Amino acid sequence: MSSSELDLKASKLEREAESKSHGFFKNFSKSAELYVKAAETYKMSKNRDLSAKCYKNAADMLKQTEKDDKYNSIRKNLCNAADMLKTYDYVETLKILKEIEEIDRSIMPNPMALITTEIEIGEMHFQLAQYDDARQYYESAAERLDAEGEKPTKASQCYKQLGLIQAKHLRNYAAAAKSFKKATELYLKNTLTQSAATEIIFNYGLCLIAAEIMGSTDEGSSSSSSPSSSESTTPDFNKLATALSQHPFNETSFTFQRHSGFLNKTISALKEDSAENYKAAIGYLCTTVTISDLQTDLMLLIRKYLEHTLPSEESSGL
């Protein structure tokens, strides 16, 4: 059956579903059933917008019924609707996910389902560049997963994404360092994911340095406010070197050794206030190791600090 034929069939089912929701003999359960059939038919023709609309209508019809277990079906239809839209319509997907969140949180409490929903909401906020909202949802999901203790890999991925948001988009380097360190600890709990810790521990080290030079010396701080003019913001690079030596990672891979060597050389360059030595450290690293966008941003920040070219809004500690 062609896409146009499928669309005609789905449209007919949709009209039938609508007719069942009106009039003296309205039947919301039957209407929901027909909307689901229409949604599945639109899905076969790859008409994602109309498929999502029909899944959503099915959920709305089920809300009108008296079934005891209706929220299981409502949630399923809302999830199907979100799946149809989540790769391109972030605004509508977010609205649907918020409905699912209400079910998971209050109507039919389910801690593990709520975690999955929070991650998906966090991702939608991230795609919409609503970074503080994304941070809140990823942070909540990560903390819940960590407390459950059953899915360390999923928790580590949440902490990794949280650290990325905090560092790259919110410029809260102290909080990002804490998130990356937590991600590393969780990756190390599974021998299959230990290699992933190599990049994360490097992010941790760079964020510690960034937090120090930007005036935030508390690794665990969640505040992004700048220090007052009366506070001392002189970086303590000896303290920083000690913190870096106490990370939970013991790795002998070439990449890790390069990362570790670069961080040590960077600390030395910062102690000596030597931009030239820092350039040499970059050369030592970048000739053999691939650098991520976040790492590039953080390394550039350090270079600007050593060259005394930080813009005033950055040097304020934001």
If you had to describe this structure to a student in words, what would you say it looks like?
It is a single chain. With 318 residues, this protein is mainly alpha-helical. It has a domain at 1-104: Serine Threonine Protein Phosphatase 5, Tetratricopeptide repeat (Alpha Horseshoe), CATH 1.25.40. Helix 2 packs antiparallel against helix 3 (48-63), helix 10 packs antiparallel against helix 11 and helix 10 (197-213) packs parallel to helix 12. It has helices spanning 3-19, 28-44, 48-63, 70-85, 90-107, 111-127, 131-148, 152-169, 173-187, 197-213, 237-245, 254-271, 275-286, 293-306, 312-315. The chain is 71% helix and 0% strand. The radius of gyration is 25 Å and the shape is elongated. It has 15 helices and no strands.
For the record, the CATH class of one domain is Mainly Alpha
What is the percentage of strand-forming residues? Answer: under 5%
> Spans of 5+ residues with little confidence (pLDDT < 50)?
216-232
Q: Could you tell me the mean pLDDT?
A: 87
SSE topology:
Elements: H1 3-19, H2 28-44, H3 48-63, H4 70-85, H5 90-107, H6 111-127, H7 131-148, H8 152-169, H9 173-187, H10 197-213, H11 237-245, H12 254-271, H13 275-286, H14 293-306, H15 312-315
Helix pairs in contact: 1-2, 2-3, 3-4, 4-5, 5-6, 6-7, 7-8, 8-9, 9-10, 10-11, 10-12, 10-14, 11-12, 12-13
Spell out the key features of this protein:
mainly alpha; single chain; Serine Threonine Protein Phosphatase 5, Tetratricopeptide repeat; 15 helices
Can you give me a brief rundown of this structure?
The protein has 318 residues and is mainly alpha-helical.
